[in-house]
Write a structure and sequence with these properties.
The chain is α+β, with helices and mostly antiparallel strands. The strands form 5 sheets. Strands 5-3-15-14-13-12 form a 6-stranded mixed beta sheet. It has a 5-stranded mixed beta sheet with strand order 1-2-6-9-4. A two-stranded antiparallel ribbon has the order 7-8. Helix 3 crosses helix 4 and helix 6 packs across helix 7. The two termini are 20 Å apart. The N terminus is likely disordered.
Length: 374
């Protein structure tokens, strides 16, 4: 079984960075900018955001939680849910018609609906910091609003009851708080991606970012755990790489053997297709809540490029948006570039998650990684 989660400071290099051979994906033109302009090519290139991971302890546990922590004062937030079987918390609070304007953290977690309990640990930590929606005259009288979404990974380590709880959420938010601003995001089998699987292939956490010509930064973090596949069965190319215009086509013999091994792994541990891909797309642009919700919606286009089929009844595909508002849009037309970049960044984040994932074999199943098959 794969090693436990590690904080960004002690994570192995291959968990922090996409493999060197991974092709750079998606939209590099003058209109949308380039990922090479972004220091870490991850969500934390949006200044002030921090990411922390925690794993459920135990030899037969394969699940965890990831927390995106905003700067003090929070960020404008929105959500777009398109899967038919979502597991979420506090998403109604993000409706632009409702009261709460900003949130301090977003939780992505394993454990299906049980794992949403991890958000209560994040909520408790935020209250201790005096962060949240103030409801009384005392500054300490706050109610943190912590939106969350979960993936289905129950039993993948062999223990059905090994799932994130409030302690896991607290560990993840504390890990986020310990990181330096702009620290690279650990990727692969970490946090909420610990037990993620996509079409029988090991999934995980992936992240990417784009800096626009206007100076606006857009980043994405995805937990890839889909009913559909990220790999074209005809060619072996990751769907998300086609947009780059120069995908690497595997040797036919390598592809045939990879498909055989993947089919065998699926057959040994057949389970109902209960999955979900969840993500956070963030920007430093100053957005209204309605604009942030539009960004969450268009970001799903990137998910549809990278996973096929997507948004099924057994998926709970959910995309959150965070807008820190430190960069004013120079003109209204730049908003369209932000929307396009959100889809591009999320597509690339899915590719990086699959490429960073490591194979897992244990009592809960055999989940081969792309890097081992190809």
């Amino acid at each position: 079984m794969t090693p436990g989660d590690q904080t960004p400071a002690d994570a192995p290099e291959d968990a922090r960075e996409a493999p060197a051979e991974a092709p750079v994906d998606a939209a590099r033109g003058a209109a949308t900018g380039s990922p090479t302009d972004s220091p870490t090519d991850s969500l934390t290139d949006v200044a002030g955001l921090r990411v922390g991971h925690a794993r459920v302890p135990g030899d037969r546990a394969l699940s965890g939680t990831t927390v995106v922590l905003t700067p003090p004062g929070g960020a404008v937030a929105a959500v777009d849910v398109r899967g038919g079987g979502p597991g979420t918390r506090e998403t109604d609070a993000l409706d632009p018609r409702n009261l709460v304007q900003r949130v301090d953290a977003v939780v992505l977690t394993g454990g299906s609906a049980y794992g949403l309990d991890s958000a209560s640990g994040v909520m408790a930590w935020l209250e201790e910091q005096g962060r949240g929606f103030q409801v009384g005259p005392d500054p300490a009288q706050v109610v943190p609003v912590v939106p969350a979404a979960c993936i289905f990974d129950l039993g993948r380590g062999g223990d059905w009851r090994a799932r994130p709880d409030a302690a896991t959420g607290r560990a993840a938010v504390e890990a986020a708080a310990r990181t330096e601003s702009g620290a690279p995001v650990a990727q692969g089998n970490v946090g909420a991606g610990t037990g993620a699987v996509a079409g029988g292939l090991k999934g995980g956490v992936g992240s990417a970012s784009i800096t626009l010509a206007s100076g606006v930064t857009v980043g994405a973090l995805a937990v890839v755990n889909a009913v559909g596949s990220t790999v074209d069965p005809q060619t072996g190319v990751l769907y998300g790489e086609y947009g780059d215009g120069r995908p690497e086509y595997p040797d036919a013999a390598v592809h045939a053997e990879a498909q055989r091994r993947l089919a065998a792994a699926r057959g040994r541990h057949a389970r109902p297709p209960l999955n979900t891909t969840i993500a956070v797309v963030a920007t430093d642009a100053e957005l209204t809540r309605a604009q942030a919700q539009k960004l969450a919606g268009t970001a799903h286009d990137g998910l549809a490029r990278a996973v096929r089929p997507v948004h099924l009844l057994h998926d709970g595909d959910t995309v959150f948006t965070l807008a820190t508002g430190t960069c004013r849009l120079p003109d209204p037309g730049v908003l369209n570039e932000v929307l396009a970049a959100g889809a591009d960044a999320l597509c690339r984040a899915v590719v990086r998650a699959v490429r960073a994932a490591e194979s897992v074999e244990g009592p809960g199943g055999t989940f081969p990684a792309h890097r081992d098959l190809y």
